[in-house]
Structures are given as structure tokens and as C-alpha cells.
Amino acid sequence: MGETQKASRLEIAQAFVMHVGHRDFDRGMSLLSPTVSYKVVGYRGLEQGLSGCEAVTKHLIELAERTGGAFESLKWEDWLVGGDHIAVIAKILIEVSGQRVVTSVLFLIRFDADDKIAELIVFPEDVRSIERVLGA
Asked: What is the CATH number of domain 3-134?
């Protein structure tokens, strides 16, 4: 796989994660495979995951609405680029009804042959605090 394709996937991953937590996430929908899978490890209700572009997009838009836009990345700490995967470590802020949590999260993004995001797995550092703020 050439360096150009890796850079292209990095740009796609960067564009995707910049949309997470924003109400206009439907713009990020074009970056997803129609059969994308999504799960949050350790988070009740999302550990089994979601499948399909519409289901994932709907969830991420609902997350942004529920947090009133107070789901944001404070700092992108590291980007790890492989052939089919990109891992992103971020410090995030989530706030709902005056309750807030700041924690680190690892996003593992897998691409398909068409350079669409085929799988997104989220590994929160402090899942209990996220559940406390967002609910299960």
C-alpha cells in the first residue's frame, strides 16, 4: 500500500472524528461504509454495537443533541497509522445537564477497500464516568 493511500485514509479519519459530537454529523455520513459497524467497549447498550450507516449516523447525531454540543475533543493526543487501521487517542469532554467528564478515548477505525470507514470501535478510559453522565 503506497504512502498516498495511507495519507488519504488519515485525512478521512481526521475528517470523521472532527464531526463526532457535532449536530451536523450527517456530513460525516459520506465517510462511512453502508455496512459500517460501531461499538463502545464496556458501555452498556453499545457494547454489542450498531450496524449500518444510518444506525451509526442516527446514534452520533442523537449523542450530539443529548449533550447540546458539549461533546468535544479537547486534544488529539496521537494518530497511529497502519495499512487498514488508524487509531486515534483523544482527550474528550462530555457534558449533560451540568454533569461533565473529561477522559481519554481510543478510536480504532478500520477501512474497507473503497477507503470508507467499515468499523469503528471506541475504547473509553473511564467508561463508568461516561455512563454516569450519559446514562447506560
From this structure: 3.10.450.50
